[in-house]
Amino acid sequence: MWKLLKQCPVFFALLAILLVIGISSCLLTSKLISFIFINFYHDKWLDLFFSYYTFMGDGVMCIVVIITLFLIKKKKTALILLVSYLSSGIFVQLLKRFINNPRPSLYFDQIGFKYPYFVKGIHQMHSGSFPSGHTTSAFAMAIVLTLCFRQKWISLLFMLLAIFAGYSRIYLAQHFLEDVVVGALIGSVFGLISYYYIWQSRDIRFFGIYEAEIIPEKS
Question: Mind listing the pLDDT tens digit for each residue in 75-128?
Fold first, then answer.
């Protein structure tokens, strides 16, 4: 596993820093304070942007990427992404059922807080806040694609796309910071594990087709 991390050192160093900052913020501040601090600025163009961009972490987007990888003959990468998406998604749904924290809209009603920045047209859910499924999918996808393509510039792009997907969930008042941070952690862990175990197998069968795609070592 350590060998995988060393293949994309900048990406994983940045990921570790972001997770440490995020976890520390959750431990040192309340969910309300961190939510307000992150959502200090709203504008109509951002409302529109994040209303659509949040679908980057949606399951449909992940499936589209999986199908695209399969069609361009990256079957092993497609399989890794499929496994990471399904496994992390199942784990997240189990946590949601057991913990079932209120979403921001319901939580604000419970504590009597008047939040002024709810985005028009966005349906506000009330339960299953912890953790963020969109963020989990976005980071699982970022991890898998980074490890499979292993190019510095594109790995940073994947990181940025995943961060914005996570932030969109807070901006749209669908999740708190703790939901997003834990979602990013879960997605990263399941992405790494899925890649590690499937990467070890040099010959696999995917949709009835033998795939012996050996991902080259980083030079």
Answer: 889 999 999 999 999 999 999 999 999 999 999 999 999 999 999 999 999 999
- Of the candidates 187, 184, 176, which has an alpha carbon nearest to the alpha carbon of residue 129? 176
Between CA 212 and CA 126 the distance in angstroms is 46
- Report the half-sphere exposure of 160 (CA within 13 A, side-chain side): 6
> For residues 182 and 189, what is the distance between their CA atoms, to the nearest angstrom?
10
Whether 182 contacts 131, CB under 8 Å: yes
Q: How far apart are CA 57 and CA 73, in angstroms?
A: 24
- Record the pTM: 0.90
Ramachandran angles phi, psi of 99, nearest 5°: -95, -50
Residues 6+ apart with CB under 8 A from 155: 8, 10, 11, 146, 149
CA distance 57 to 184: 11
